Amino acid sequence: MSSVTGLPELIKAKVRSIPDFPKKGVLFRDITPILKDPAAFEAVVNSIADFFSAKHAEYIAGIEARGFIIGAAVAHRLGIGFVPIRKKGKLPYKTVSKSYQLEYNTETIEVHVDAVEPGKKVGIVDDLLATGGTSEAACELIEQIGGKVVGVGFIIELTDLKGREKLKGREIFSLVQY
Amino acid sequence: MSSVTGLPELIKAKVRSIPDFPKKGVLFRDITPILKDPAAFEAVVNSIADFFSAKHAEYIAGIEARGFIIGAAVAHRLGIGFVPIRKKGKLPYKTVSKSYQLEYNTETIEVHVDAVEPGKKVGIVDDLLATGGTSEAACELIEQIGGKVVGVGFIIELTDLKGREKLKGREIFSLVQY
């Protein structure tokens, strides 16, 4: 992976597709083989870091739980701070929260009220863009506490699920698409 | 934080102590102010990375969820692979699992059976060492799949809870102690 040419193909070759997880009919894209491969992990982190570097991000906010893995490494790479966006009830200090609809239920995520200072540029990171519900809620949370969302970065985008429409008007980066 | 002298004190000054979270009587040590501060985040990651570099770790395994944040940044820093140790039911491929006793209930964590190759040196990372139950289960999981645990690294150690006794015989690093 010394060249950027063909990087998406090299990353795709590392994604493990697992049928019927977490439930029947879903083809789960498992990124753990990427994370365990030093070259693939580094390439993914650097790609997303380059995207946010160009946008002058001052914080990276990662969405629990796989977004923590990629987001924290991206923040470290860029030498900037990391902000966890967590499921309801996990953050100990004062939070703002946002609920959004999933297929069969409602999910709520939260961020600390003082996670970023007003006006700061924030990049949002998760492993995978599906319907975009979680990412859009994450963007709105950051905006609610005064941050400016400069982009949303993913390893994988499932294009059929039209997450880009949900995130319309936002800058989106994904390394590989299915 | 250009000097290592006084680093634990500088990190301690960033930890936010929150009474009665997640339940009455518990003083929660909130590391989010460390994560959001570029210098503090980098210092923490580098300290833990130095510990595992000296032990020639070939993988970093992070424990869900805050261990993902520190562990992934440490793995990226060292240019080695990252392995997620997750709560039951979250990993999509074949897993081994380990249950352990908490104060009022039982918790189960899992790792993919192919997360590391037999004989590989693995460093375990979490944010905080309390009773050591989770960390010891994580060590045993890595050993169960053939890995060699070369150490366990934390930002914070709560010495009263005697986690070191639980992890007896293992190499332990913690940056600050309470």
Describe the structure in your own words.
The structure is a homodimer of 178-residue chains. By secondary structure, the first copy, chain A, is of the alpha/beta class. Chain A has a domain of 122 residues: 3-Layer(aba) Sandwich (Rossmann fold). Chain A contains six helices and ten strands. In chain A, strands 3, 4, 5, 6, 7, 8, 9 and 10 form an eight-stranded mixed sheet that branches. Chain A has a two-stranded antiparallel sheet with strand order 1-2. The longest helix of chain A has 17 residues. The model of chain A has no long low-confidence stretch (mean pLDDT 96). Chains A and B meet through helix 2, helix 3, helix 4 and strand 4 of A and helix 2, helix 3, helix 4 and strand 4 of B.
Entry keywords:
alpha/beta, 10 strands, two-stranded antiparallel ribbon, Rossmann fold, 8-stranded mixed beta sheet, 32% strand, 178 residues, homodimer
Helix/strand class of chain A: alpha/beta
CATH architecture of the domain at 56-177 in chain A: 3-Layer(aba) Sandwich
Task: Report the sheet-strand fraction of chain A.
Answer: 25-35%
The biggest beta sheet of chain A reads: 8 strands, mixed
Helix content of chain A: 25-40%
Oligomer: homodimer
Q: Give the largest interface pair and sizes.
A: A-B, 43 and 43 residues
Q: How many helices of chain A? A: 6
Separation of the first and last Cα atoms of chain A = 21 Å
Task: From the 3D structure, determine the CATH topology of the domain at 56-177 in chain A.
Answer: Rossmann fold
Mean pLDDT of chain A: 96
CATH class of the domain at 56-177 in chain A: Alpha Beta
Overall number of strands of chain A: 10
Order of helices and strands of chain A: HEEHHEHEEEEEHEHE
Low-confidence stretches of chain A: none
Rounded to the nearest angstrom, the radius of gyration of chain A is: 16 Å
Q: What would the principal axes of the Cα set say about the shape of chain A? A: globular
